[in-house]
Amino acid sequence: MFSTRLLFRTIRPVSVRLGSTLAFLETAGGQITPASLSTVTAATQIGDPITVLLVGAGSMEAAKQAYKLPSVQKIIVSESEKYNHYLPEEVSPLVVKLLKENSGFKHFLVPASTAGKNFLPRVGAVLDLQPLSEIIKVVSADTFVRPTYAGNAVLTVKSKDDVILASVRPSAFEPAAEESTATSASVEEVDYVKSGNKTEFISEKLITSERPDLSSAKVVVSGGRGLKSKEEFDQLLYPLADKLNASVGASRAAVDAGFCDNSLQVGQTGKVIAPNLYIAVGISGAIQHLAGMKDSKVIVAINKDEEAPIFNVSDVGLVGDLLDIIPELTKKL
Fold this sequence. Notes:
This protein is of the alpha/beta class. It has helices spanning 4-7, 34-46, 59-66, 88-101, 114-127, 230-244, 252-256, 287-293, 322-332; strands spanning 8-10, 20-24, 27-28, 31-32, 50-55, 72-78, 105-111, 132-135, 137-140, 143-148, 153-158, 164-168, 186-189, 219-223, 247-250, 277-281, 298-303, 316-319.
């Protein structure tokens, strides 16, 4: 059993072994997010012991999950409400303090999420380090692969920094699985680090859905401008998605046209995903959209234009009228 009485203690400063990796993990509802679990996988491939950082509401509960993750030897927790919404102005000073006080940290990894991409550059600026963005492969402890030019080229980069900062593209790494038995990791609490921040969190609007989360869904049905209207988007895509227990996505053109909320956007300026099955409905295949989904295991493209670029990356292509094809496909499923 997980015992907070025996496991949790306050120790300052935090001491770590030489040559370890600090990984920032986001939480939602007291659970570590899938993107953060992928970050743990990337950290394990570096080969050093892992220390994870959990902050804000639910972090102590999430520590129970982190306790079962592979290679995790230490869990740092700060439950201060100042960290509840991952404001970069608040999180950055804590991370900087940890990296400055612990010379053993040779890597600092974050998910390539909105939160991670917000505060990682700040940490790099304060410490005069060059972050590596959205790594997709670990070659060695100092060499990584990352995409560039909207995913049309990849770079193999070697960092000469004493501490390597990097964001991890979740779609490139499988989420770390919990081990059947808990590790011997210790859990240590740290205080809030004063930031002098004058930014205040006001509110947020969350869109809830019973469908799988788009970022981690195994099956995604996406719609584009070829659906003509919000009514067609809703009437054609959602019944198909329900049959497949799939998440719904969209191209930027569909979002800009008002067919759906921008939280569903897939692409270079939206979410980058790699589901087992991606069904592109009425999507032409602009380079910005392909950058967000072309790593999907199987891509099915349905479009009336047989010259559409989406067919160049699809495994299965079907040319025809969406108004006929999608209802029939849904019915047969």
